[in-house]
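Dear colleagues,

As part of the handover before I leave the project, I'm documenting each prediction I ran so the next person doesn't have to rerun anything. This entry is a single chain, and its sequence is reproduced below.
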Amino acid sequence: MAAPLQPEELEHLQTRLVERMEADGCMPLDIAHGFLTATAGARDDQGEGLLDRVLGKLAADNRLRDLLTRFRKQLLSDLHSAEYGPLILQLPRDDGTTLPLPYGWCQGYVAGMDYLGEEQRDRLMADEQAGSLLVPVLSFLMYEQDQWFDPPDETVHRETVGQLGGAAVGLFQWWQRQSDH
């Protein structure tokens, strides 16, 4: 397996994706992480298309493609070993605390579900177990924009953020069981 990204490589990938997001239609890293998590159960032959979707017009940039490939392999390894954590941005506050901002990751996850197609998305939503695992992901998409930095109930917000990793692993395992049938 390829080596995990070094901090400077991760920083380069994130910076380049954010700098070119609007001009080249690429995803920032938190959205890409959610997207690649949702599509982790995709067939192996879909991998290049997933990378193309994340990179947008930067898809021909071999360095970024290599970094993103390694990033995805690490994500898949983390899901398989159930040692996964979503990439959640943190907002520093004046009192020294941080507020987790899971909205990009959640948007990416839903974009990944859409990428898999209507049939797969409907199958996931129709299953009671999978649907319950989606609740924390979808709950953050219910926030109004003015609530992003001032959640209605910060304790519940933090608890729900804490559920995202387990939900992602559970959904990945659910997809694995579906492909076994």
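The beta strands are 89-92, 98-101. The two ends are 28 Å apart (CA to CA).

All the best with the project,
I.
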